[in-house]
Write a structure and sequence with these properties.
The complex is a heterodimer of chains A (415) and B (171). Chain A is mostly helical and 415 residues long. Chain A has a domain of 265 residues. Chain A has 15 helices and 2 strands. Chain A has a two-stranded antiparallel ribbon. In chain A, strand 1 and strand 2 form a beta hairpin. Chain A is globular and about 90 Å long. Chain B has 171 residues and is mainly α. Chain B folds into 2 domains: 83 residues, Up-down Bundle (Four Helix Bundle (Hemerythrin (Met), subunit A)), CATH 1.20.120; 47 residues. In chain B, 78% of the residues lie in helices and 0% in strands. Chain B is built from 7 helices and no strands. The longest helix of chain B is centred in the last third of the chain and has 28 residues. Classes of the chains: A mainly alpha (415), B mainly alpha (171). At the A-B interface, helix 5 and helix 6 of A face helix 2, helix 3 and helix 6 of B.
Chain lengths: 415, 171
């Protein structure tokens, strides 16, 4: 009798019995069944990139009042396949003076840094690669390979624009890793575990986005910067760097970076869904894992849509503004939030869930209010300094800086 | 020989060989990359010994922070990386003998440790992580070394800010 709850497990036991009946050694069958998800998960992940690229191009086009791809197939859904054929047939160039091995290694590392995260993503109650007890740390650790890939790509290309792009990219990635790690401490704190599936399970009584909205916001901003997309796409600022770290790449090697970027954005959407939106939790998801997968996919796409929305809406910020935003606003805010959340969580232990949730929410709002207050005073000071400097130099220009608070705060802290 | 032993031998061989490559390879950036391979194989060894936390921290700290810092330094001083001097001086036999002695001493004392002859300890999953966490903050265990290390790191952090800030101001 097959229980609906453990479809994957019963599939696995059926496959094991089938392979054993073929006369294979039991040890070999175990190794093969262990390897199967390790092969399937990256494949599913990479296949996800095909609809994602089409979806994102359509979304961004609509946000910018364009139509987007609409020539190949209905609604242009076969555009990605046409692009794939084109990219496969392109010449694979390696520039003169490039470090050939590293040049070819970098795209592989870029993909590995993204697909590695899929090993710990909890798709449903019992559908996941592995429920590592250090899952959150593992996500951070795998992410460093993406950083390494960009650094190596920029260096091995023997091109100064690529190298400049790589320097910027690594400065950005290292900078935004700090608030990212700090905010990920909040779900870990609330769940009492670092395993992703345990964190999802702990949100049964309430999604963490309701308990810690500020942590979710900081996570979103840091994730957008980690992926390196607008408004934080400094690493490939066309007007300054031609194309950034991947300028010398052509054909499938460029395709690797392209796919890695799209998949990375969606993977952060999935992580956001797991950390803050309750992952696969929903009515009936324990009994029917397929429902859990559906919920997880919908929530991931919702978070992913916010990333795409941000990308399609905001203009690019300057590099100093971007670095300042992280070090001088997001990092202190995240630090304060983690400290306050730890105290609030401990203080409300044993109280009814509603009181618990309200106290945590109040702590978040307090930190948010305080951060906004500091930001406002800093941007005001920046505007005054700018105005007095311009009045002194007699240029007669109107001070335009500081109309948006983060930009103003950033320029206030510059000197 | 079991599968775990074969895997251990492969990973150990990769670690040792890449360690050798770090010191023999001419290109400084390649040396840094081989260092990453060596550090990563140590992380794999940790993971195989049921120490998942140590494995992940090894990757985060050594590959994510230190190796990237080294690569950054090499890239910013690109001319130094091309210097082609001799890779050893006339004292290398002495150094070799010293290293061999240290290795023998370490191997002997490691083989005398309790549990050196048995396989990897069977740690109970996430309970080990919880035990590590509570051990670091419980007063009858490691809270004092932990706090001393924290204060030291904080002092280093403030010191680096002061040094960098001074340079900015005098410019």
């Amino acid at each position: 009798m097959i229980q609906p709850g453990d479809l994957i497990a019963s599939l696995g036991s059926w496959l094991r019995g089938f392979l054993l009946s073929l006369g294979l050694a039991p040890g070999l069958v175990s190794v093969g069944l262990g390897l199967l998800p390790a092969i399937l998960l990256p494949l599913i992940g990479l296949m996800m990139a095909i609809p994602l690229i089409w979806l994102e191009r359509k979304w961004v086009a609509r946000l910018q009042d364009r139509i987007g791809p609409n020539r190949v197939g209905p609604f242009g859904i076969f555009q990605v396949f046409a692009d794939m054929v084109k990219i496969f047939t392109k010449e694979d160039l390696i520039p003169q003076g490039a470090d050939k091995i590293i040049f070819s290694l970098a795209p592989v590392l870029a993909i590995a840094g993204v697909v590695g995260i899929w090993a710990v993503l909890p798709f449903a109650a019992d559908v996941y690669g592995v429920n590592l007890d250090v899952g959150v740390l593992y996500v951070i650790a795998v992410g460093t390979f993406g950083t390494l890939a960009i650094l190596l790509a920029g260096w091995s290309s023997n091109n100064k624009y690529a190298l400049l792009g790589a320097y910027r990219a690594v400065a950005q990635l290292i900078t935004y890793e700090v608030p990212m790690v700090l905010t990920l401490l909040v779900p870990v704190l609330l769940a009492g575990s670092m395993g992703l599936n345990d964190i999802v399970r702990a949100q049964d009584s309430g999604w963490f986005v309701l308990l810690a909205p500020l942590a979710a916001i900081i996570f979103m901003i840091a994730a957008q910067a980690e992926v390196g997309r607008a408004p934080f796409d400094l690493l490939e600022a066309e007007s300054e760097l031609v194309a950034g770290f991947n300028i010398e790449y052509s054909g499938m090697k460029f395709g690797f970076f392209y796919v890695a970027e799209f998949l990375h954005s969606f993977t952060f959407g999935a992580l956001g869904a797991a950390f803050f939106l309750g992952g696969w939790l929903g009515p009936g998801s324990e009994r029917f894992p397929i429902l859990g997968v559906l919920y997880f996919l919908i929530k991931s796409l919702a978070v992913y849509f916010v990333f795409v929305w941000t990308r399609g809406t905001f203009p690019r910020v300057r590099i100093d503004q971007m670095i300042n935003l992280s070090w001088k606003l997001l990092t202190p805010t995240a630090l304060g939030l983690v400290a306050l959340m730890a105290v609030a969580e401990r203080a409300t232990q044993g109280t009814p869930p509603l009181v618990h949730a309200l106290v945590l929410l109040a702590a978040n709002l307090f930190v948010l209010f305080f951060a906004l207050l500091v930001m406002r005073s800093m941007s005001r000071a920046a505007r005054e300094r700018l105005a007095s400097r311009q009045a002194g130099s007699g240029s007669g220009m109107v001070a335009v800086g500081g109309s948006r608070a983060p930009a103003g705060a950033a320029s206030a802290l510059r000197d | 020989m079991s599968l775990a032993q074969v895997l251990f031998l492969i990973v150990a061989a990769v670690g040792l060989l890449s360690g050798l490559m770090v010191v023999t390879v001419r290109n400084l950036l390649h040396a840094a990359l081989w260092l990453i391979v060596a550090l990563f194989s140590v992380a794999v060894l940790f993971a195989m010994l049921n120490a998942g936390f140590l494995a992940v921290v090894q990757v985060v700290v050594y590959i994510g922070a230190i190796a990237i810092l080294i690569i950054f330094a090499i890239m910013l001083t690109r001319r130094e990386a091309l210097r082609a001097g001799a890779q050893e001086n006339r004292l290398w036999p002495v150094a070799g003998v010293l290293c061999a002695l240290v290795f023998l001493g370490l191997a002997w004392s490691a083989s005398r440790l309790p549990g050196a002859q048995s396989g990897p300890a069977q740690l109970p999953g996430s309970d080990a992580l919880v035990a590590l966490g509570t051990a670091l903050v419980s007063p009858d265990q490691y809270v004092v070394p932990f706090e001393v290390a924290s204060v030291l790191l904080l002092a280093a952090l403030i010191g680096s800010v002061v040094i960098a800030g001074d340079r900015l101001r005098s410019r």
